[in-house]
Amino acid sequence: MKRSFQSTVYVIFVLVTFIALAKAFMVYENPFNIYENPLVWLALIGFVLVVVLKEVVHSLALKRATELQNEKDGILPEDPNLWIKKLLVKWTRAKSIENEEEIVLDHDYDGIKELDNALPPWWIYMFYATILFAVVYLVRFHVLDGDTQIMEYDKAVAEARAALKEYKSTATDLITAENVVLLTDEKDLNRGRAVFNLNCASCHLKDGGGSIGPNLTDEYWILGGGLKNVFNTIYNGGRDGKGMIAWNKTLKAADIAKVSSYVISLQGTTPEKAKAAQGEKWEEE
Q: Measured in Å, how far apart are the chain's first and last C-alpha atoms?
């Protein structure tokens, strides 16, 4: 009676849920859109889970009933892990405790005896593998003069440098100190001014007169003037230990080009508080 009642409830649940989902699919314009109709998806997932769970429970119940019947009939079930035990015995050659008398040696110290266990096959095979590896290594690196790790590293670095050089020679959007050009467009200079005010004004002041950093409006430069030198100084940083940090990890090359052009545009201006000249006078060649 109980089983038939559960089956009836299950069948009713399946029919009602199926009809409700079918109507939802017909009513909604995009029933499978999870963002518009999440309830439809929740109902569908719940329906599938209930069906699957019911089948799993039914399968487990049948399995348990079969085991009980086998126990009643005196049928011993086969050990499901028997193949694992056979594999372990084969790969370890271990003797069971009942058969250890066959491999007991005559050594006896204070009641402690020694077993003459064979080496496990997996250990022997690994040992043979190391011998084979040693032979191949000997022939490869000492007979045929193969490349050592250092030689392989040097070759890889040389190939990477060659690939980088080729890329730099063909890349149209790669800006370096060698190919940077002076930007005079108002939009580029405004971007350069914004970058300068955000990152450089704390040391050079907004008008470039200099504070912690040197004056950028005069003709004297510590690391050389001109667009290429200014770009290189911003990109790679100033003097070690006491100069400006390298900005290549913070700013894009395009922004460094724009701020470099803006710095060049400050030449000849009159800041409010100009710092004394530093470095050497720069003259364009």
A: 106
